[in-house]
Amino acid sequence: MEVELKDRKPSDSSESCTDEKSYHSVKEDSRAQDVVKEGKEDVVRPIEGKGGQADPDAVIDPATLDWDGPDDMDNPHNWPAWKKWYATMTVALLCLVVTMGSSLYVSSVPVFQARYHVSRTLGLAGLTFYLLGLSTVIFAPLSEVFGRKPIYLFTLPISMLFTMGVALSNGHMRMILPLRFFSGLFACPALSVGSGTVMDIFDFDEVSTAAVLFSLAPFLGPVISPIMSSFAVEAQGWRWTQYIQLIAGGVILPFIFVLPETHKGIILKKRAKKRNLNLKEFTKEEQKQFLKVVLTMTTLRPVKMLVVEPIVLVFSIYVAFIFAVLFGFFEAYPIIYSGVYGMSSGVSSLPFLGIGIGLWLGALFYIVVDRKILFPKAPPGTPELENSTSNRTTPYRGERDPKTNELLPVVPERFLLGCKCGAVALPVALFWQAWTARPDVHWMSPVAAGVPFGFGLINIFFSVIIYFTQCFPPLMVASALAANSLLRYVVCSVFPLFTVQMYENLKVKWASTLFALICVAMLPIPWIFERWGSKIRRRSQFGYAAMIKTENEREETDGDNYDDNDQATLSRVATLQVYDDSHSMASVKRTSSRVSNGGTSGRSQAVIRAEPQESMYDHLESDHSEASLSDRTSDKV
C-alpha cells in the first residue's frame, strides 16, 4: 500500500485550500513512516515488518490515521446532504434550548419581588449568573479528545438537573444563584462545541451558509423565550419558566443520542480499534501537557489577546455592547410596552417578534452576500476538482483571477462587508425606537424598529467571527473566539442589572438615544479596519506574521538539527501567510515590482499562491534557507 505525493500542475487552484489539511497530515506524520524519494515523487509507505508486509503489531500514533481515500463514506464531508443537515440542525436546536434559558428566567423576577420580597436587582442576578456560566469555554478543547457527541450527552442532562433545582428552590435566591450558574456552565458546550461540528461537516466555501443557519438558532432563543415565559407565568406560575426549558431539553435529547460523531480524529480512532490496530496510548506527561494547553487556550491566552490584539479587543467590545443592548431589552421592553402603551405582561413581550424578523432578514442578507460576493459560483467551463480529499468534484466557490480563472484567496477585510451594513442599521434602529416610543405614536412604530436592530446585530456578529478566522491561525482563532465569548457574556450579564434604573431615570427617549449615540461612535470601526487592518495584522503577536518570525528564530537556533518535520512546519506557516495576505491591497504592487526585479527566485508570488500546497512545499524544500524564506515572505509580514 503506497500513498504518493505527486508534483502536480494546478488544474484547479482551489486545491490550495482544501488539500492543505490532508497534505500536511501526511508530511507531518513522517516519523511513523518510511519516506523514499524517487525522482520527483515522495513515496510514503507504512512501517513494514518481516517479509515486507505491514507489521500489525506496530504501535500507531493516532495522529497519523487518515481516511481510506476520497470516497471514504465515514468522512463527514462525504455524507449525504440530509445527514449533514440533520447533524447541523440538531446542534442548532440544542443551542436554541440553551440560549432560551437566559431570557426565560426574566419573566419570573416580578413574581419573586411580589411573593418572596426579593429586590429587582437581586432577582435579575439569576440572569447574570447564567450568562457568566455560558461565558466559559473549557469544554471546547475537551471535545477534541473525547469527541463532540459525548460532550453534548454528558453536559446537557447535568444542566437540566440544575434547571430543575431552580424550579424546586421555592424562590430562595441563595439556592437559585449558584444553580443558575452551574446550569449555564454545563449548557455552554452547545455554544462552544457546536461550531466545531459544523466545521467538521462542510467544505470551506459551504461553511458560511451552514454557519449562518446554525447561528440563527442561539440568536432566536433569547428573542422568542420571553414570549413563551410571559404567558406561562400569567397562566401557570413562575416555575414554568424552568419547566419550559426542561421540556425543550427533553425533546432534543433523543436526537442527540442518534447524532453521528463528526470529529475526524475520534471517527478514525474508533475505526482503528474495530480493525484491531495497535494505537499509541498517551503518557501521563502528555496528558499533563494537554491540560496545560487547555488552560492556556481557554483562560490565559484569551485574556492576553484582549489586551495586546487590537483586532480582538475592538471587535469584542463592539459585539459585546450590541449583545448587551439586546439583553438590556429584556427589561426595557416591558417598561416601553407596559408602561407607555399599557399592555399586559404577556402581550408586552410580543414586540420581540420585530427583532426576530430582523434576525431572519439579516441571515438571508448575509447568505446572499456570501454566495454572490464573497464566494461567487465558479464560472462555466471551470474544470472539476482533481485529487480532492473527499468525493466532491464541483469546483470551489470564490473569487477567481479573470485572466487565468484561478481561485484567489479572499482578503480578510472583505468579510467586513456585512459588518458595515449592520453598523449603519443599528443606530437607525435605536434612534427610531427612542423617538417613536411615546403614547401619541402607534405601538407598531417602535416594534418595527426592532427589525433593523436584529438585522444589524446578526450581520455584525457573523462578519466579526469570520474575520477572526481569517486573521489568526487555527489555534489562535480558538483563543480569539474564546476572548470574544468571554467579554460578550460578561458584559451582557451586567447590563440588565442597571437597565431598569436607566430607563426610569432617563426615560425611554434618552435611554435608547444614549445607546444609539454609542453605536454611532462605533460605526466607523469596520471602515477603520478595512483601511489599516493589513498593517495591524502584520504587527500582531498571535497572527501569521508572529508565526513566521517564531519559525525563523527556531531555524536559527536549531541549525543543522533542522529536520524534515521542521521543514513541513515552516512551509505550512509560509503557506498560511501567503494564503492570508498574498492578495491584500498593499502587497500586490510590491509583488509586481519584485517580480520585475527578479526577486522571487525565478517564480512570482502569484504563481506560488496559485499552486497546490504540495508544489508550494516542494518549492520551499528545494531552498529552505532563512534568506530564501525571507525573500518570499518579507513583503507579506
UniProtKB/TrEMBL annotation:
| Lineage: superkingdom | Eukaryota
Q: Where is the composition biased (Polar residues)?
A: 385-394, 589-604
Q: Where is the composition biased (Basic and acidic residues)?
A: 1-48, 616-626
Looking at the Swiss-Prot or TrEMBL record, what is one Pfam family this protein matches? MFS_1
**Residue segments, region Disordered:** 1-60, 382-401, 584-637
Task: Give the GO cellular component terms, alphabetically.
Answer: plasma membrane
* Swiss-Prot/TrEMBL keywords: Membrane, Transmembrane, Transmembrane helix
What is the protein name for this chain?
Answer: Major facilitator superfamily (MFS) profile domain-containing protein
